[in-house]
Amino acid sequence: MDKRKNKVGKIFKAPRGTQDYLPEKATLLYRLDQLAAEKFEKAGYRRIVTPTFEETGLFQRSIGESSDIVRKEMYTFEDRKGRSLTLRPEATAPVVRAYIERNLQAEIQPVKLYYMGPMYRYERPQAGRYREFWQLGIEAIGSSAALIDAEVIVILMQYLDELGLKEITLYLGSMGDDNCRVDYAGQLKGYLESRLDSFCEDCNERIRFNPLRVFDCKKEPCKQQLKEAPKLIDHLCNECSEHFENIKRLLKVAGVDFVIDPTLVRGFDYYTRTTFEVKSPLLGSQDALGGGGRYDRLVEQYGGPDSPAIGFALGIERLILALEKEGVKTKVENEIGLFIVAIDESTQEAAFKLLIELRNIGFSVEMDYLSRSLRAQMKLADKYGARYVIIIGPDELKRDEARIKDMQTSSEKNIDMSETASYLLKKK
Ligand SMILES: [Zn+2]
Ligand SMILES: [Zn+2]
User: Fold this and answer.
1) For residue 381, what are the contacts with CB-CB under 8 A and spacing of at least 6?
2) pLDDT digits (tens, 9 = 90+) for 239-256
């Protein structure tokens, strides 16, 4: 009989495309969040937390009915009252919804926000791609100035730099605005329709729904065909062109390197002007760590005031993968400074009391919870990497003392129980 089987006869597994963040990785996850909070808050960004699910229509309208996400990848369900809800596939639409609903336009503009949390897309799981995945992102709503585009990009690149990533490249593009894009889309469609057979089935569908999306295709033959296609970046109107030039100038001022990518057309309908992406060559075919862009019409599209905006989202799983591939130290150790050994049950209470006292004054302290032998407890202390071990036996307890062992020098010393804390503080 398989002894792993429980009484019900079924061993549960996490759903496909999800993962458990076990302690070491979970600690890293929140360290990444912590570091982002420090950096972003210094730049005036404030945290926002929105629900993990929203009304389905919110995403249909923002991401666009024709996008792969809305057509195939959303986790949509009906609740008990028959309302259609969707697990958020991204956070920009929820943040914009909150901006309008909670009247953030009454605050100082631009409103600068950041978030981190899980997102959901029904995609084929592969390296660095999950159905539940974490994103860290920024949204700055209420300014169209190139200054804020540059700021958002600089913050992203400085964050990645601080983490120790070296082999990453920032790609920069522009999608123009309604002014220049409509003309261009017509030209592109003409070009694409003259060679429909050369494109894959997905692209044929894209050409029908939204020709700009062909640039999302990862298939080599399609990419080849697109080399000769007209590029939006060559058809920008004067205002868009000037905006783009200003960003390039400001990035240079900030010392941020970039590569212009004329095919950088992001998959969402709502993007205007600036688009950017950060890639790592070490990540294989899923090489984008994250990216973002400007979405000047989205707030208005949701019935809010005219509030041009820009943001980025960083995929945490890919980020961790990139850190690992570059050999950046990601192991986060749980540091245990002290270990208290209770030699037998009669000393456990005194040991527990000391444990609480020492934790209260800031030490990280562990003890044994399985009534192990003295020998086994010493081994355990060693495994935890404890610097000092405090041993409390019946004899010590009678004299109201504790024996302190320095694990580095192996020297031992008996001291008054009441002075253990001050003694250890001096050693700290
Ligand atoms: Zn294709
Ligand atoms: Zn334009």
Assistant:
1) 339, 341, 366, 389, 407
2) 999 999 999 999 999 999
Ligand with an atom nearest the CA of residue 182: 2
| 420 and 404 Cβ atoms separated by less than 8 Å | yes
Ligand nearest to the CA of 274: 2
- For ligand 1, the distance from its centroid to the CA atom of residue 288, given in whole angstroms, is 18
Distance 227 CA to ligand 1 centre (A): 13
Name the residues around ion ligand 2, CB cutoff 5 A: 176-177, 179-180, 237, 240
d(CA 177, CA 171): 19
Ligand 2 center from residue 233 Cα (angstroms): 10
Asked if residue 210 has pLDDT above 90, the reply is no
143 and 261 inside one domain: yes
Ligand closest to Cα of 200 equals 1
| 197 found inside a domain | no
Residue 173 shares a structural domain with residue 139: yes
Q: Tell me which of 236 and 206 has the higher pLDDT.
A: 236
Tell me, yes or no, whether 185 lies in a domain: no
| Token representation of residue 200 | 């894959």
Separation between Cα atoms, residue 24 and residue 27, nearest integer Å: 5
Give strand pairing partners of 313: 137, 291
* Residues 370 and 250 reside in one and the same domain: no
User: Which ligand sits closest to the CA of 272?
Assistant: 2
Are 124 and 44 within one domain? Answer: yes
pLDDT in tens, 32-54: 999 999 999 999 999 999 999 99
160 shares a domain with 50: yes
Residue 101 dihedral angles phi and psi, to the nearest 5°: -65, -40
Query: What is the domain range of residue 160?
Result: 23-177+237-325
Q: 198 C-alpha vs ligand 1 centroid, how far in Å?
A: 9
CA neighbours closer than 13 Å in the CB half-sphere of residue 93: 25
Rounded Cα distance, 271 and 269, in Å: 6
Do 317 and 364 reside in the same domain of the chain?
no
Specify the 3-state DSSP secondary structure of 341: strand
pLDDT tens digit string along 56-109? 999 988 777 767 777 789 999 999 999 999 999 999 999 999 999 999 999 999
Q: Specify whether the CB–CB gap between 52 and 87 falls below 8 A.
A: yes
Task: Give the count of domains, the chain.
Answer: 2
Which ligand is closest in space to the CA of residue 294?
2
Q: Residue 421 belongs to a domain with what CATH number?
A: 3.40.50.800
Sign, CA torsion 104/105/107/111: positive
Residue 6 has pLDDT above 90, yes or no: no
Same domain, 318 and 366: no
